[in-house]
């Protein structure tokens, strides 16, 4: 019932098939997985990353003894802008850590080309992107390592957990040591490590969730379509969705509340709270503005105009398979009314 048993080995095999990646490792949570990915790659110096993400992304860089360097995002997708990434690369840069925000894929081809040109490692925080495909290719096959969060808020989850997919099979040995206190065997501790192992209860839950995943995905797809249809012509309300050729994750329903709307994002958020509708201003605040990182030169707001703008406009609407048509309509009514006031 602790770790390393049949439930975990079965889950790893299921994830290999589902994520279409040969190299998969599981962890007790996504933050640990991302931190140990950075450690396994033996990085030094600076890592170019996004300010528009959950703090765990930036914290993992910091805890790995690296310096985050913020680059601006693409205003349309919310993901890192490749041009801003390349402009941020210096002689001290060792990696790019990009985030597939809301399951919307980064410009993987452009980022891959930049990483190759400058000899950098490319890591993806794919916490929101379980099951995403780009042109039929699995999202976890891009870059050197991708991290998937298996937290209970995600479409596929193990209550709490994380997973890595990685290109270089030789990383498996170090990842195993790193998440098992560095212990190689009863007589040998090979490196400094922590307890990052997924336990058997987590893995067993994941196997159960996998059995109903496709059904939940289909239900959410129906909900997302209804949101899109209802909000298509609402002034100042824009659904943020992946482009053509992308299989979406169905984990989030983000909308932008733009200047064409009479009410701003915060007014919409508060109006929903008054009606017991739980939306989220996600991500807020920017990682570049929080206390541990606001002092960094790359954190200056004037260098991150798209991120600053999106942080003020983004609102994630309720999304799960249990939502009924009337529930979606009620959420949309608040947005329509707020836009027209």
Automatic annotation (TrEMBL):
It comes from Phragmitibacter flavus. SUPFAM superfamilies: PLP-dependent transferases. Keywords: Aminotransferase, Pyridoxal phosphate, Transferase. One of its GO terms (molecular function) is transaminase activity. GO terms for biological process: polysaccharide biosynthetic process. InterPro entries: DegT/StrS_aminotransferase, PyrdxlP-dep_Trfase, PyrdxlP-dep_Trfase_major, PyrdxlP-dep_Trfase_small. The active site is at 154 (proton acceptor). It holds the Pfam family DegT_DnrJ_EryC1. Belongs to the DegT/DnrJ/EryC1 family. The modification N6-(pyridoxal phosphate)lysine is found at residue 154. This is DegT/DnrJ/EryC1/StrS family aminotransferase.
């Amino acid at each position: 019932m602790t770790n390393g048993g049949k439930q975990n080995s079965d889950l790893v095999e299921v994830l290999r098939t589902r994520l279409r990646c040969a190299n998969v490792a599981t962890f007790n949570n996504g933050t640990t997985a991302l931190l140990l990915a950075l450690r396994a790659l033996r990085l030094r110096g600076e890592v170019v990353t996004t300010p528009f993400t959950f703090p765990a992304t930036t914290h993992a860089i910091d805890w790995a003894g690296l310096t985050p360097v913020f680059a601006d995002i693409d205003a349309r997708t919310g993901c890192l802008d490749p041009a801003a990434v390349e402009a941020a690369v210096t002689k001290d840069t060792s990696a790019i850590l990009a985030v597939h925000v809301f399951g919307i894929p980064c410009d993987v081809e452009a980022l891959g080309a930049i990483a190759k040109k400058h000899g950098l490692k490319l890591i993806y925080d794919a916490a929101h992107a379980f099951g995403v495909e780009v042109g039929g290719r699995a999202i976890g096959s891009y870059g050197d390592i991708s991290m998937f969060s298996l937290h209970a808020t995600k479409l596929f989850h193990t209550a709490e957990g994380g997973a890595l997919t990685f290109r270089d099979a030789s990383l498996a040995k170090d990842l195993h040591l790193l998440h098992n206190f560095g212990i190689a065997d009863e007589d040998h501790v090979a490196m400094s490590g922590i307890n990052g192992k997924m336990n058997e209860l987590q893995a067993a839950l994941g196997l159960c969730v996998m059995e109903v995943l496709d059904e939940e995905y289909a239900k959410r797809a129906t909900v997302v379509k209804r949101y899109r249809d209802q909000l298509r012509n609402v002034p100042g309300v824009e659904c943020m969705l992946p482009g053509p050729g992308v299989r979406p994750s169905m984990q989030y329903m983000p909308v932008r509340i733009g200047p064409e709307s009479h009410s701003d994002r915060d007014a919409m958020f508060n109006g929903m709270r008054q009606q017991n509708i739980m939306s989220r201003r996600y991500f807020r605040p920017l990682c570049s503005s929080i206390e541990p990182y606001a002092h960094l030169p790359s954190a200056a707001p004037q260098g991150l105009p798209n991120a600053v703008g999106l942080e003020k406009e983004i609102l994630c609407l309720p999304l799960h398979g249990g939502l009924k048509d009337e529930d979606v309509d009620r959420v949309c009514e608040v947005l329509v009314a707020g836009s027209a006031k």
